[in-house]
Structure formats: structure tokens, C-alpha cells
Amino acid sequence: MATGRHVAIIGAGAVGVISAIEALREGHRVTLIDPGEPGGEQAASYGNAGWLSSHSVIPPAEPGVWKKVPGYLMDPLGPLAIRWSYLPKALPWLIKYLLSGWTEARVEKTAFALRDLLRDAPLLHKKLAEEAGVPELIERNGVMHVFASRGNFDNDLGWRLRKKVGVEWLELSADEMRQREPDLHPRYTFGVVVEEAGRCRDPGAYVAALAQHALAIGAKLMRAKATGLKLDGNKLVAVLTETGEIPCDAAVVAAGARSKQLTASVGDPLPLETERGYHVMIENPEAGPRSSMMASDAKMVVNWTDRGLRAAGTVEIAGLEATPNWKRAEILRNHLFSMFPKLPKDIPASRIKTWFGHRPSMPDGRPCIGYARASRDIVYAFGHGHVGLVGSARTGRLVAQLLSGKQPEIPLAPFAPNRFL
């Protein structure tokens, strides 16, 4: 019988369900609150690239990125696009975003912090997958980055900083790449393999399995949309939902891009934004990579999944409510055909699937992990941006440690929610 507190975890995505598993391990009672199906198509956990890239330590904003903002506004189909109609709402976040990457020193600080969060992530996920009975969904076999030239790699600040924080890689010549990836277009002449990284073969199925495991070991699932948090002084008494109150002793806000309203309800107006992302997937493709890879020119990840060959990437700043721009998914498809010329150009439309979702992003590329200002009964765990799946394993452990009042296993100052308050 659990002897800890009754913890309500808002959000049954990757961060939420792993937080539930780890909180149960600590002896707490857990209720997961989410209106949707864990691992369902509505969730960012379903549609991400599937990379477990423990080397993804570079935030989106780097020095000089401000010079590209006019281009982002003018090109609705670029790797990062900002809808004019949403610019007034996005501007405060965008300014903080640009300032966070203004100097190399600021980017380096984030790289060291994210390295702590992501280190050993493929191993942590492998253990979780084994516990949940789906060990085959997590593979620790490295990922490849491909470049048009060695110069593109040498001039990249990100790789200099990765070396500084301890990431190692294997460099490949054009011939060595071709031996590994015979279907890859010959315009790519240099590559690196980060052997510590891994991948998930079906992110939606993985999150669904983790949720089922959490339920099997004692969690409860409430199908409801949380709207706020109810305090009595500095003590949490309930989570407010559209269907009523859920009494609890502690709460975890892990609602992804929809966490902003919840933190505001207890006096923390945090600068959370949605980076809208897309993927395209070809079922039963005739060609493609043997390993998971990222193309530096297309800014997209290509990954084999059990459902098909998935290409994911690009960022669109347009808020939670705007309709999808499916031309952005078409661009991913075109990049995929360009990378792998052996893919037939006449693949039936029925075999090409597209998806759109919301990455929850803080301006500096670091998630919020820590207590609310109003009460230590409330733990925040959201805003992971591009590292939600890979970062979820350690985040869940940190959440459980915070709920139990234990010393967190990594320094949490860089992720403190109040850094923007």
C-alpha cells in the first residue's frame, strides 16, 4: 500500500507517464489526468521524430539568429516560420528567444545543462521499455548526421559545443558513408555517427505501453481536461477540471504546450510557446536509410519506425489554435525524396501519412523542472521543446525526487521555473 501523497499528474505524454511510474516507485498514489488517449495522435509524444539523441544539447537560438528573423517572416515554408498574424502575441517570447542565444556563452550554459538532463537517456529508456514489456521499441544503435561538405560541419558552433560538454562521435568520409548508406544521395560527402544515441521504433506505442504499465502498478487515469490548480494558502487542495475538482496532496504540471494556463492559475505567468511541428511518413518504402539520420541541409530527422519511414522537423510559430499549413509537410516529403533518389516518385498517396502537433518550448531551449512559487506541492515538468521524448526519462526521475523532497540527481538551477519571473 502506498504511504506517500496523492499526486495528480496533469498530462499523459512521455513526461507525465514516466513521472507517474517514478512517483509510484517512491510510494506515492498517482492519478493521471488527460482528456486524450496516452500515446494517441493528438499528442506530441506520438508524432515526434523518435530520436533518443542524448547529444541534442544545443538550443534553437544561436548567436546571430536575429539576422534571420525577417526571412522567417517572409518565408512561410522555411525551416522556421512565423505567421504574421501571430507575431504580436509571439513577440515577447521571440525577444527572450533571441536574447537567450545572443552570445556563445549563453548557448554554452544551456548545452552543459541539457547534457546533464540527457546523459544516458537511451539506457534509461531501454530500462523503462523492458519494465513495460516493450523492449523492442528502444534501440541503442547510434544516429548519423550527414553534411554536404566537411566545412558545413567544421563551421557549426553546435558541434564545437558538443565536444566541450563531452559528446563523442565517429567521423565518416564520403566512401565510408556510402558503404553504410548506399541509398543516400551522393551530394552528402561527410558524416558523423554519435554512437551513444538511440531511437524509438514507435513513439506513440511506447508512450501507450508506459501508461499501461503505470496503470498496472497502481496509477489511475482520469479522462478530463485540467483548467487550473486550487490552493488553500500555500497548500494544494485540488486540480480543477472541466468536469469537477480532483482532490490531491500534490500535482505535477506536465501538460506540454497547454501548461501555460495551469501555471498562470497559481501566479506563474511563464513564457511557454508552441513550436508547431510536422512529420511525413511513407509506409513500406522501397528505399531509405539503414540508420536514423539528420540531414544538415534539410534540418530534418529521418527515422525508421514500425509504422514506416518518418521524416520530422521544421518549426512554425503560430500558436495553439491556428490551422495546420500542410505545405510544410509536403516540403518534408520532397526533402525525403531528394535525400533518397531510389524512392519511387509515384508512391500512392494512401501510403504517405502526415501529422501535425505542438512542441512545448521555453525561449532558452531548457524545460521548466521545479516547484511553483506559490507552493512546493506543485511541480512543473514541461517546455522540453525538441528534447521531450529523450529528456522524459530523467525528467520523470527528477519529478519523483522533488515530490519526495529528495536531493535531485542533477543540478536544477538551469531549469528553475522562476528564471523568467
From TrEMBL:
Signal peptide residues on this chain, from the entry's feature table: none
InterPro entries associated with the record: FAD-dep_OxRdtase (IPR006076), FAD/NAD-bd_sf (IPR036188)
Oxidoreductase keyword on record: yes
Any one GO molecular function term: oxidoreductase activity
Keywords: Oxidoreductase
Superkingdom, taxonomy of origin: Bacteria
One cellular component term from this protein's GO annotations in UniProt: cytoplasm
The FAD dependent oxidoreductase domain, residue ranges: 6-402
Protein name, as recorded: FAD-dependent oxidoreductase
Species this chain originates from: Bradyrhizobium cajani
UniProt lineage: Bacteria, Pseudomonadati, Pseudomonadota, Alphaproteobacteria, Hyphomicrobiales
